[in-house]
User: Fold these one by one.
Assistant:
Number 1:
Amino acid sequence: MVWVVVNSETKPNCIEQVNTLFKQLTQALIDTGNTNETHLPELILRDLNQICSRLDDRKYCSAYDALDTFKIMLKNYIRLLDTDSFVNVIAHHYALANNSLLRSLLAITRQYDISILVQEMTRKTQQQIFFSLFDLLNTSARIVSFLQSKSSKTTNNSDVNQTVANACGSVLYAILEILIKLRAQMTGNNLEKYQNTLFASFIIFLDEYFMIKKCSRLKELQNDRLITTMLSFICNTADQTSTIPILIYANCPQACLRWISLSYLNIDEYCSLICILHNIARHD
């Protein structure tokens, strides 16, 4: 099997390279039973990592190119995440290479100011990007399972479960960060299909976090940052009148009132909950 090698001297077509590498990674995972192919998944993950690292370099590509490639990377990664091969092969044997790729992927969101790009986008473009990314989360069985606190039961191997949970949390954080900055116009009609999946799952995830007081799984993942981002996303959603019924249907107001009565939250968590309740109350 021949795989793409990132050329450090010329600017490659990153999107084409990413798609090709993920196709080859899928095949390599199938071929891991062959002794001469067992090294390929790690090599391909390293090549993907290298692409992410170069996207993190402003001298290498524009913010628009980075965002486009970032979206394609997320789409392919989530598709891989939903496969049995991710659990059975990557999480078991290539966790370090996978975690390195995730760190580089998250670095892209910190390197570029998406807010500046958003100002130059039409409202239609903002909505298209928003819902294409939100759909990636909504259609991912693995991420929805993670939100519903089922990822810890993926296997009997705690290290594998941790790798899977870390991947889900990292992807979720990266996408929510972009969704917040997009400031897309949302309505109850275009969010309705997500109320029984993502929005209900957000409440389940937050409820576990707050009520169990940051259990060991969440501590290891350092999910404070994910929680803050998720709360910010819900607060932004509650800022638009037409989306309030979606949050009410998901029992968001009742949940926020329950959480805000707890004595051990940090200041950012309390502020976010107050913001959500304020936005819901003024539109109710």
Note: Residues 188-284 form one domain.
Number 2:
Amino acid sequence: MTDHVTFQTRARTIDHLGREQIADCPTAISELWKNAYDAYARDVALHIFDGELNISAIVDNGHGMNRSEFESKWLVVGTESKTNGFNIPEDDRDGLPERPKQGQKGIGRLSSAALGPLLLLISKRKNSDYVAALIDWRLFENPFLFLSDVQIPVRGFSEKHELSEILPFLFDQMMGNVWGTLTILSERKELRRHGIHLVAKRRKMGLKLRRKRK
């Protein structure tokens, strides 16, 4: 009897393709700038914030992604959007002439793991809602997880001010990979009974307890 089996992919594959392939931070930034160029951005900038938390932000004005494109392209390793036969529609070029592709392997997006353990990705396509996702690259260092075991929290929103409201929910969903979603929900409900609210604290993936004043 002949059985049909398939390859299974460990979560560490993302770590191998991303962080471990990047020599240093300048190389990682270069790869992300290539992605901005391929998205027909006219401007791209790197902002570095020194303080209690070390934060860097790469911002560009390329054509962006909607939620569907984020899930079907950005989250798909080896997608055809970087192959030679794929062309950017003219409407997405913002009046610019066709550009030769800089990112050929489709893994430049993973290079952000070399800049820091947490990635907050925000994107928007014209006439579409924003899409936000929160990724902890350290989850992909776990040798016992399969790629399908890691859940990436994604939210769509209409106005920029809504981002601060959805961040705690993205954090909770991301931490569900560690604690389990039901555990987080039950603990949050129990704490609120006692007037205590959970506030996402990005440093060291911790949680800060804040008691609501009466």
Note: The two ends are 70 Å apart (CA to CA).
